[in-house]
Amino acid sequence: MKILLAPMEGVIDHHMRAILTGVGGYDGCVTEFLRITDQQLPARVFKRTAPELLGDAHTPTGQPVIFQLLGGDPEMMAFNARKAVELGAPAIDINFGCPSKFVSRKNGGAVLLREPQRVHSIVAAVREAVDMSVPVTAKMRLGYEDDTLALENALAIESAGAAELAVHARTKVEGYRPPARWEALAPLREALSIPLIANGDIRSVQDYLRCREISGCNDIMLGRGAICNPYLALQIKNGTSKEETPDVCWEEISILIIACAERMKQDYPNKHIIMRIKQWLGMMKEQQPQAREIFKQARVMKELKEVENILREVTQ
Ligand SMILES: Cc1cc2nc3c(=O)[nH]c(=O)nc-3n(C[C@H](O)[C@H](O)[C@H](O)COP(=O)(O)O)c2cc1C
Q: Whose Cα sits closest to atom 2 in ligand 1?
């Protein structure tokens, strides 16, 4: 079983990747997308998206950091994929899932799923541009308006040479509205020879077991579930036969948040760090009752020290 940490723009940066993969259970993680339009981007832009490229392109605990590109021009995607690999990216992922209304046909994302031929051309161009030892992967939704082209797109991605495909089990139009439709992954799973990685709404060990049963996919990608419960990947790896998801120790989560804030001090001003902690607590509060209480207090705080102190109180 393989578990990947999902890309989440504005939420999972290199600090979060380090903290979450450090907990354990993850086999790799994917960067936030880098948008490719009509030029070859300079090295500094790649390193800003993935500061791990300054080292060995792995997280501190050794998980590969897969570099994600988003764009609709095969030639430009190929140029920039080559650049990412030159800079040390161990694998390239192509984004066919971004629902942003600013993402046009030219710029890529889920809108490309209306044109499987174009999807094929982009994956094939990137595959051809980089050494065969570097895996090229893709991440897509079930479709744009509906999922009638899901299988065609998945097969286009496979035949263009992708090593694996992650599918967020919703269309662009469905946005993030629950539930994710894991059942729609089953026909893709059956038709593909490459691994299919199920994604969407896996927030507990029970969800994983149900998703696996319904979709037939062993491999998964965790996004919001990983933020809400940093131990989720580890629990899934350790407890796939258990009925219940083990309780999460809130003290340990507080320690992780404090450690993440400490790391962020290398790069960000306090104001940004406070915003990020509030964002994390805000996402957690749906699933962790203790986070709700701390979020309520932290929401009005303006000083980083204050926020750190209430987190520290929990750990004492
Ligand atoms: C705030 C946010 C940012 C995201 N950024 C990206 C991104 O950069 N690239 C990408 O492929 N998917 C992105 N996604 C989609 C997630 O990777 C994932 O497919 C989606 O959240 C469903 O999985 P989950 O239910 O486990 O969160 C983003 C999702 C959210 C909520």
A: 8
Pick the CATH number of 250-315 from 1.10.520, 2.40.30, 2.50.20, 1.20.225: 1.20.225
Q: Which atom of ligand 1 is nearest to 139's Cα?
A: 11
Nearest Cα residue to 36 out of 117, 114, 94? 94
Q: Kindly state if the Cβ of 233 falls inside 6 Å of ligand 1.
A: no
pLDDT by residue (tens digit) across 296-311? Answer: 999 999 999 999 999 9
Residues identified as active-site: 98
pLDDT digits (tens, 9 = 90+) for 210-240: 999 999 999 999 999 999 999 999 999 987 6
Ligand 1 contacts CB of residue 158 (under 6 A): no
Enumerate the domain spans of the chain: 3-238, 250-315
Q: 245: part of which helix (H) or strand (E)?
A: none
Residues 110 and 168: beta-carbon distance below 8 Å: no
Predicted TM-score (pTM) above 0.90: yes
For domain 3-238, the question of CATH label 3.40.50.10490 is answered with no
Burial environment of residue 207 by CB neighbours within 10 A (0 to 12, 13 to 18, 19 or more)? buried
Distance of CA 8 from the midpoint of ligand 1 (Å): 5
225 lines ligand 1 (CB under 6 A): yes
